[in-house]
Amino acid sequence: MEFYKTKIRPWIGIVVLIGIGIFMISDPTAMDGNEVHGRNALLKSLLKAIWGLPAGILLLVGGLVLGYFQFKKSDDPEEG
């Protein structure tokens, strides 16, 4: 379980950030036609408000930076 928490789980989050960033960049108008109602209306309205090219670039760069530091941390021989 320790291997999952320290090695696998961070990479899952990094891949999700990069994937959402790429999707935001490739289709910046994906949320334009969505109607906000029903369950999870707050989340849907937040996604509709921030969806687009600038947020996609931020997510992509953030995921790449986190991936770089995670990769650098895994190569560190002092960490055991």
Would you give an account of this structure?
This protein is an all-alpha fold and 80 residues long. It is 71% helix and 0% strand. Helix 1 packs antiparallel against helix 3 (53-74). The chain is elongated.
Tell me the major beta sheet.
Answer: none
Helix content: over 70%
Number of helices: 3
Indicate the mean pLDDT.
87
Q: What is the number of E strands?
A: 0
**Unreliable parts:** none
Rg from C-alpha positions?
16 Å
Structural class computed from helices and strand pairing: mainly alpha
Distance between the termini: 17 Å
What proportion of the residues form beta strands (DSSP E)? under 5%
Shape: elongated
Task: Write down the secondary-structure element order.
Answer: HHH
Question: Which descriptors apply to this entry?
Answer:
elongated, mainly alpha, 3 helices
Summary?
This protein is mainly alpha-helical and 80 residues long. It has three helices and no strands.
Task: Indicate the topology.
Layout: H1 2-26, H2 41-50, H3 53-74
